[in-house]
Amino acid sequence: MSATVQSMTANAAEAERELTDGFNLIIDALKLNGLNTIYGVPGIPITDFGRMAQAAGIRVLSFRHEQNAGYAASIAGFLTKKPGVCLTVSAPGFLNGLTALAHATTNCFPMILISGSSEREIVDLQQGDYEEMDQLAIAKPLCKAAFRVLHAQDIGIGLARAIRAAVSGRPGGVYLDLPAKLFGQVMDAEAGKKSLVNVIDAAPAQIPAPESIKRALDVLKSAKKPLIILGKGAAYAQADDAIRQLVEKSGIPFLPMSMAKGLLPDTHPLCAGAARSTVLKDSDVVMLIGARLNWLLSHGKGKSWGNAPKKFIQIDIEPKEMDSNVEIVAPVVGDIGSCVSALLTGMGSNWATPSSDWTGAVAKKREENVAKMAPRLMNNNSPMDYHGALGVLRTIIKERPDAILVNEGANTLDLARGIIDMYQPRKRIDVGTWGIMGIGMGYSIAAAIETGKPVLAIEGDSAFGFSGMEVETICRYKLPVCIVIFNNDGIYRGTDVNKAGSDPAPTVFVKGARYDRMMEAFGGVGVSATSPDELKRAVNAAMDSGKPTLINAVLDPAAGSESGRIGNLNPQSALKKK
To answer: Exposed, middle or buried, 451 (CB in 10 Å: 0-12/13-18/19+)?
Structure first.
């Protein structure tokens, strides 16, 4: 065979060889690792990627704002223990998603933010490319890890590193930077397939040291008034049966933080949620399970913890969390499932439960507080106050314990957290560690998508404003989400007055706003409710129908207090004090 014929044959073989490109390799890598849902906003340079991913069987949820898509991805990670994926365009889109990525990292939710970006050679010389920005450098300080993939053959490794970083150890947010040229890079399909990585054991168990378990049990045995505090890390762990066994076998009262509510029912005889002040003040040994002694627990000190000396046991996968605010006399480092199982084994069959003096005192205080609150929850005032409105929603959740409750606001959040009992784990999701507003619609969408369960979102009117346009997204995807907006015409309340001019006060909104008509504009159901009875009928109808519904719950504009229950965090003017 002549050299010319050989060359022609080789060229023909090359032409017939199956090829793949960056678009397909990213899609294949996601599917190989079971990441079958993407939350995002389309645009240059990732529009075609979204279309191709959808065509390949990945569910692509298109939002109206990247921040809300990011919040959806973050809570998807919490609910599934797999990284939620958010896809954005470059620069401004990336920055919009970055808030949610930082939120995911702070709250220990596994999430991957994937953003298209400008080419390195143009960014590095600052030559003014379309949406030019060094996104990797900006993301690094705000997430757990950040990676950039420049070559198609590295896509598999890049995604594998992102997955491991997101879910291993203490989970968090990861940024994955994909320059525009990467999507169009072509390589041999067989070589591309071999370059993909199926991540195995991405979050391996971390077994606690036996001596740490013995130390913790010794401290617990010495307690006269022990307390267990369950945090959202305990809910994330999905070690529900082991945690229930630990509480019931130990006989120790437990206090659930807001997103840990339902690990054991709030009506459980050992639940101290309604006696929070008493157990924090009077306990002598406190075991933290997946909870941090941050501002939500007054940093483990101060007036709310009383004068009684405290010993702390802490179970956490992150060693650096120990001694962050107070001395931890018995640190137990490991994943929560392994740690709790080891504690159960170490307790043996003859564990001595706390004295009835302690458990009886907690139960008595709980019953007193519940009885004191009950009449306030049964009023049928029109316009409503918070307690009357939350009283009927409390009953609805009791009757529908499988529904997901999303909650945000100031008074709306603070009061709902204490009033609405939860009965199943991971059914209450809210603003988390930062206490930020705006998570509501993103969380609601992801909760409906990831669980298939109906969602009840209880929103302050101010909080709803951060993500309200996503009601169109809810209607577009026909999701079973019922939104209740507590409308008191303003932030905290709608009665503030500007004494210096004609502009409204900074905290006041349009009087008599009809949020329900927003939902009607997109084909959903809108209802205005002015009394608890009307609210109850409207919510039950929405939950029964499964149709996207928004209920404008009209509250007394004077209802509410400054910043809910954390008004003390507002700085006070020195002149005002004089």
So the answer is: middle
Looking at the structure of the chain, the number of domains it has is 3
pLDDT at 124 over 90: no
Q: Residue 110 belongs to a domain with what CATH number?
A: 3.40.50.970
**Any residues with CB less than 8 A from the CB of 14 and at least 6 apart, and which?**
none
Q: Which amino acid is at 223?
A: A
Q: How far is CA 210 from CA 1, 331, 339, 417, in A?
A: 73, 12, 10, 37
Confidence of residue 578 (pLDDT cuts 50, 70, 90): very low
- What are the tens digits of pLDDT across the range 434-487? 999 999 999 999 999 999 999 999 999 999 999 999 999 999 999 999 999 999
Phi, psi dihedral angles at 148 (to 5 degrees): -125, 135
Q: Tell me, what amino acid is at 275?
A: A
Question: Are 401 and 548 in the same domain?
Answer: yes
The position carrying tokens 């010319």 is 4
Has residue 40 got a pLDDT over 60? yes
Q: What's residue 573's pLDDT?
A: 67
Helices 210-221 + 336-347 axis angle, to 10:
60
Asked if pLDDT for residue 19 goes beyond 60, the answer is yes
What's the pTM? 0.95
**In three state form, how does the secondary structure of 506-539 look?**
CCECCCCCCCHHHHHHCCCEEEEECCHHHHHHHH
306 pLDDT more than 60: yes
Distance CA 86, CA 66 (A): 8
**End-to-end alpha-carbon separation of the chain, Å?**
102
- 256: enclosing H helix or E strand: strand 254-256
- The last residue of one of the domains, among 195, 230, 261, is 195
A 10 A CB-CB count for 409 gives: 27
Give the pLDDT band (50/70/90) at residue 408.
very high
Q: What is the pLDDT of residues 140-156, one digit of tens each?
A: 999 999 999 999 999 99
Cβ pair 50, 93 in contact under 8 A: no
Measured distance CA(553)–CA(514) in Å, rounded? 10
Give the separation between CA 450 and CA 332, rounded to whole angstroms.
32
Q: Of 394, 381, 376, 411, which is closest to residue 532 (Cα–Cα)?
A: 381
Does any domain span residue 73? yes
Which of 345, 366, 387 finishes a domain? Answer: 366
pLDDT greater than 80 at residue 7? no
- Reference 402, options 348, 453, 478, 456; nearest CA is 453
Strand segments, DSSP code E, in 276-355 are 285-289, 311-316, 330-333
| Cα distance between residue 29 and residue 16, in whole Å | 24
d(C-alpha 64, C-alpha 53), whole Å = 19
Distance CA 256, CA 265 (A): 10
40 within 8 A of 63, measured Cβ to Cβ? yes
